[in-house]
Write a structure and sequence with these properties.
Transferase(Phosphotransferase), domain 1, single chain, 313 residues, 10 helices, seven-stranded antiparallel sheet, two-stranded antiparallel sheet, alpha+beta
């Protein structure tokens, strides 16, 4: 159920409208503090599941994300910030939305005003390759921060990369990575998280897991694969493959097919051979043979030294 503008949630937040069309496991809304329209926030509300007792899978994912993001050691400019919710003279980071049918769990985040990479992709493809590499670099250093903790995001895709402010070609991009519902260190992993994925960006081993293969988790290595797909899009404007339903997983997401498609970097693109080599390594079928995020950042520094975007005089 889509909440109307003006709906009050938890007696404190007033809905302004949807951030994006509903999908996945949660609905995300622009909102403000009740009585203070200038104080903007974003609410993420788990989609209610009918006839469900106890916590639903969607609520488990939302609470898992809140438990990660509430930690002070996870504060980073490239990681979306979660806000505390005052309740009964205590502070919590997730709560039930009692005004919503099914009373689903929700949490509150900082507002981001620049739209997603998906929304901006067409414009970005007209920008110089150096600008796009600065964008990718800033995404990569956020991933490096997460990987240094021993965790992987595991759902890297353009929908989950949102700009803090509207982009322009003359301004350094400020991407923020959102949606940590599938984030894991490979040890503390609820089953619903292990089996969830975005098919077009999921790594080879995660696809095999979904097909019933007994394969361990590779949280950081799976991120490298997903980053390769994002990088390929930033270079070419298209995906190296497209999966429309789970029946296509087995035949279309083998490493060999993606390796073949991802080599198809048009020769007229600046440094096409360099990109082809990096991308091939990032989608190696063996997770242990993929480069680390530190190696990828170093390669970017070598091929596209800073400042990648000219500094205004």
């Amino acid at each position: 159920m889509i909440l109307r503008k003006g709906t009050i949630v938890s007696e404190r937040f007033e809905i302004d409208g949807l951030v994006r069309e509903p999908g996945g496991t949660a609905e995300v809304y622009h909102a403000h503090i009740r009585g203070n329209p200038e104080k903007k926030v974003v609410l993420k509300i788990a989609i209610p599941e009918k006839a469900h007792e106890g916590l639903s899978d969607y609520e488990i994912l939302l609470i898992w994300e809140a438990e990660i993001l509430k930690r002070a050691e996870w504060r980073h400019p490239g990681i979306v910030q979660i806000y505390p919710i005052p309740k009964n003279n205590k502070i919590t980071y997730y709560s039930k939305a009692m005004e919503v049918d099914g009373h689903p769990q929700f949490f509150v985040m900082e507002p981001l005003f620049g739209d997603s990479l998906t929304h901006n992709m067409k414009k970005i493809l007209t920008y110089p390759v150096e600008w796009r590499m600065e964008l990718f670099y800033r995404i990569a250093i956020t991933i490096a921060f997460i990987h240094a903790k021993g965790w992987g995001h595991r759902d890297i895709k353009p929908d989950n990369i949102v700009f803090r402010t509207p982009i322009t070609q003359s301004k350094v991009p400020d991407p923020v990575l959102i949606d940590y519902a599938l984030c894991t260190n490979g040890k503390e992993t609820p089953s619903v998280i292990r089996k969830s994925m975005t098919m077009d960006y999921a790594s080879h081993e995660r696809v095999l897991q979904s097909l019933g293969h007994a394969i361990p988790d590779y949280p950081k290595e799976s991120d490298i694969w997903s980053l390769a797909i994002v990088l390929y899009e930033l270079i070419t404007g298209k995906l190296p493959h497209r999966i429309t339903n789970k029946s296509e997983l087995k035949s279309k997401t083998t490493g060999n097919e993606i390796q073949k498609n991802i080599q198809d970097i048009p020769a007229n693109i600046e440094k096409a051979p360099v990109f082809s080599q990096i991308l091939r390594e990032m989608v190696h079928e063996n997770p242990n043979k993929r480069p680390t995020i530190e190696m990828i950042i170093q390669a970017l520094d070598d091929e596209f030294p800073s400042p990648r975007i000219p500094v205004a005089k």
